[in-house]
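Here is one chain, start to finish.
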Amino acid sequence: MYLLAHPIGHYKLSEISSLHHWNIQRQDKLIGNFMMFNNNKIFIEGIDGKIFQIPYDIVQGNDKKYVDEEINRINTLNGIASPSSQNFHFQVAIFLISITISIFFLLIGIKSKKRNEPVFTRIAYSLFALFFLAFSIVACKKNKIIETIIPDIYNQGIPHTSPTFIDSAFEPYKPSVSTNWDSNYFHVATNGFPNHNMMIGITNWQQQVPIPQYYIDTNSWSIPLQPVYASIPLSTRTNFMKGAVAIAVNGIPIFNALNNRGEDSYAIGELDQWGGHCGKADDYHYHAAPLQLEATSGLKPIAFALDGFAVYGSREPDGSSMNTLDTCHGHIGSNGIYHYHGTTTYPYVVGAMRGKVTIDPTTPAPENQILPQAFASSLRPATSPLREAVITDFNMTGPNHYLLTYTIRNKTGYVEYYWDNLNNYTYKLTDTSGAVVTQQYHRTRKH
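Its structure:
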């Protein structure tokens, strides 16, 4: 869309105090009045006559009240075009008419030459054509139609995130998780086991079961302390179908809502009651928002995305109802800083990475992944789907000893597994016919 920007502006210095002062995160204060609303964008005419286009979603508080009042006032005009729109159409009409007249006199001049009319007549026609052509150019230049100036509001400086703020969100889940930080990253170490039960409710199971992971030392999770807004947020519909996009405050990684086949993991029954399941490395992770953490976390973040922005639950940090979410599944909070929200509907946590992230160059989209990234270590070969299986129970029956129960057409099967202090793992697989297979593996730490 194009708008007119007036070179000298409409406002005198004495009028500035009467203009609206916008409370939008910018290095320079934006002062100007509401012009129009279109395609979920607000158009503001600044002091110098420039037209600023701002997403409606980021406007809050008194600014939002002011905009809503202006929109309501305009709506009462029953469709009468705004002055800006009328001015725009008028100048376009003048420009087109001038061009038409120029072409008209130019054609007459050409015909007069063919009819051998006097030279001064042909010169007159040519001068008329040149005059109207020049008039149209001057009119266009003087009332220049330019692309709307879009201030890069999101790319203003973001304050360095306080490590103690992040640490306070992880505090309720210690010592299952441990934390430390340096000048660039907040690090989270964990064994990948949550503080709740797992696996129950899965109806689309690949025969994977959770085992501890070595998310420690140099393989711990890393949250940037200085987030930077991405100029083009990368959508999770077409990116990040490998690896995590966030880390929950109980130490469990959160993956894309879509699995590596591009399917909604929750919608196809791959997830348990807590929004998680196990990957090929028997690594437990979420694909949906772990909203159950709100019971412990309260109004603190329930996760942090790997671009550095916090993920809150169903309410705003101040306890108020969740505000409207953008396509990234978040918005700028009352503190002027962006955050995501977890919800019960797709994309559940992150719709697009609002912050800049580093992509692993060895992983092409859509199965690309963010770096730094903690990696799971495999123990046994990847397993295959077990059709019609429904996981009905999962219990810890002793130290490092677990039993998973599933059913297929009212017949019951089991996966019993355990490990010793030397990392020797034993799996006892009992299918629904009662047949038993025992598998043994030795695990060597890879990370």
